[in-house]
Design goal:
Blueprint lengths: L1 H8 L5 E4 H11 L1 H7 L2 E3 L5 E4 L1 H17 L8 E10 L20 E9 L31 H11 L3 E7 L3 E9 L2
Parallel strand pairs: 2-4
Antiparallel strand pairs: 1-3, 4-5, 5-7, 6-7
């Protein structure tokens, strides 16, 4: 809860940073789990983005960490990270399900997608999973506090962005993040 509450009071100094650098830092921190699960994290040049570095690193840590945590035991976890700059109006063309959210059709957005082949979740939980203490699985099955995705959502909001989740039970999950370019 302390980490969650600090997101409101922390200084918000934006810096243009290389997303590949942040992903590499997170991979290094999660190296033991990645090796243990024989996970593959696929990404190419993700580009530079203007963010609050500490917060965005935490966002990536939580999302990649969840992909590892909620992986299947029977297959190798594969996490795919993509990034592109799109116009708000292009979201319709990308078949993006923004639910109750809207993007300014005139603005450019960094669209970051993190997808996995894990256990996924039922589509009816697409919004609920971002609420504090919302767990779809018992504590005995998967460790955690139930605030990781609430922290991710708050970080995205601190960047004036939107995050959506798309889950398919036993097929994996995809998180789409939209951060204004400026």
């Amino acid at each position: 809860m302390l980490a969650f509450s600090r997101l409101n009071t922390e200084e918000r100094a934006f810096e243009k940073i290389d997303l590949n650098t942040l992903v590499n830092e997170v991979k290094e921190e999660l190296k033991e789990t990645i090796d243990e699960k024989k996970a593959t994290i696929n990404y190419e040049v993700l580009g530079k983005i203007s963010v609050i570095p500490f917060q965005f690193r935490q966002l990536l840590f939580n999302l990649i960490g969840n992909s590892l945590k909620f992986s299947k035991t029977t297959i190798q976890p594969i996490i795919t990270i993509k990034s592109e700059v799109i116009k708000g109006s292009a979201c319709i063309q990308h078949d993006v399900k923004l639910l109750n959210h809207t993007l300014d059709i005139q603005k450019n957005y960094y669209h970051i997608s993190i997808a996995d082949n894990g256990i996924g979740f039922e589509p009816q939980y697409n919004e609920r999973i971002f609420e504090v203490f919302q767990r779809l699985h018992g504590k005995e099955t998967y460790k955690g506090t139930g605030i990781g995705l609430a922290i991710v959502k708050k970080i995205v909001e601190n960047h004036n962005g939107i995050i959506t989740a798309n889950g398919k039970l036993n097929l994996g999950a995809t998180f789409d993040i939209y951060i204004p370019e400026n």
